[in-house]
Amino acid sequence: MAEGRQKYARIVNESHTSQPDIIVGPREQLFHLLAEAAEIEHTLMCSYLFAAFSLRTDDPSLELGTQALLGRWRQAIISVAMDEMVHLLLVANLTIAIGGRPWFGRPNFPVAPGYFPSGVSVRLTRFSPETLDHLIFLERPQGTELPDGEGFEHGEAYDREEAYHGLMPSVQDYLTVGRLYEALRVNLVASVKRLGEAELFVGPVAGQVGPDVIDLEGVATIGDLASALAAIETIVEQGEGSPGDRADSHYQRFLAVRSEYQVLVERDPTFDPAWSVADNPVMRRPPEPDGKLFVDEPAAARVLDFANAAYGLLLRCLVQSFGRSGSEAGAWQAKYLDAAFGLMHVMGSAASALTKMRASTGNEDLTAGMTFTMLRSVEPMFGTTEQHLVSERLRELFGGARMAAAVVPELASLPTAVDKIERAFSKPL
Q: How many whole angstroms separate alpha carbon 372 and alpha carbon 104?
């Protein structure tokens, strides 16, 4: 009965006393923290991609040197987004390692205040000085004081406070993403001390996604405390690093882009590196329209529908790659991950095209953008029908790709790309 009587306890990390206290609790607290970490990584990945897609990398009115510079910025931001994908996979592996299932759900954009801490504002915004400052703010190391990008403040600061810490997991406030992972580290260590390593890490390593099936730096399976802490260290070092000695951290990469941007603006103060993409586009008419733009221009709405459908199937393929068992588990994982990464490129093509398409019948000035609209459910499919159902959806996407290509000539290669994914996926093992 000792576990049943476990009380939550507040502890303070003395090296960061300005940060909210860390709440330590039982396994359920770990599941809760991991779910929030997954949502943070997922939302950041999407918002970074949105900013990258908005850059005018293929604008023929720009000099070739300027196009190349914007291309480097786009690649720098996309590389950070891919690191967020690695972090999402590591969080999923850690969730499995302690007996859970990965969480790929998240709120739709823009995320309402109160869902995350007051210092974590997550919206879809075009590349701009304000957006770049916001990206730097989000990736700042613990102990680094920076203002957020103008317009990204949530207004009055708030605490996600609870009156009593009992059986329900704590929401765990934090000022930086690094502090969230510090809370995970502290809870992992405390759980091992309380339960023992074998009792905490009860999930199958075989059900995780490892470097044998995905070629992304940092991906690793987790089976004990040492590998769990190593995964957290990878996330924090890639995502934050040190202001002085981690040149390839997200923080430093974004600082480098800002330095180049400032040089460009000094030469031409009127230069805008991004298309006139609407902030917070939505694919469904919102009940609260303030701060959002409903994409209702017919051509853009059709391409947006396809892009979101590709994104939804991409998530399903990621979900299906976890929790597998048996002698063919690795082959199935590779099949689903190949499809997911193929769909990522398809989605990127459609998302880039949207940034040059008029967004709304009521607004001549703004173009559309990928909304990353989430479905209500991305739970795994079971049984022998999963391959049939994914193949069926890929064939539906093929039809959507043909309609998108009919609207936008630059998307002429989309049907072939989707057909290639479907043919490869439908092959028997």
A: 13
Name the token pair of 58.
């293929």
Residue 346 phi/psi, 5° resolution?
A: -60, -50
Residue 214: closest CA among 104, 319, 336: 336
- Terminal Cα distance for the chain, rounded: 48
Residue 245: per-residue pLDDT: 60
Residue 419 CA to residue 54 CA, distance in Å, equals 27
Structure tokens at 394: 């890929």
Which one has a higher pLDDT value, 377 or 257? 257
The total number of residues written for the chain in this structure = 429
Residue 138: which of 37, 34, 280, 40 has the closest Cα?
Answer: 40
- Residue 7 in this model has a pLDDT that exceeds 60: no
Is residue 188 over pLDDT 70?
yes
CA–CA gap between residue 331 and residue 391 (Å, rounded): 17
Pair 408, 415: CB distance under 8 Å:
no
Geometric angle at alpha carbon 303, from 299 and 305, rounded to 5°: 115
Q: Is 277 helix (H, G, I), strand (E, B) or coil?
A: strand
Give 21-68 as a DSSP string.
PEEE-SHHHHHHHHHHHHHHHHHHHHHHHHHHHTB-TT-TTS-HHHHH
**DSSP-derived secondary structure for 129-190:** HHHHHHHHHHTPPTT---PPPTT---SS------S--SSSPP----SSHHHHHHHHHHHHHH
The Cα diameter of the chain in Å comes to: 71
The pTM of the whole model exceeds 0.90: yes
Cα–Cα distance list, 157 to 118, 120, 148, 187 (Å): 6, 11, 13, 26
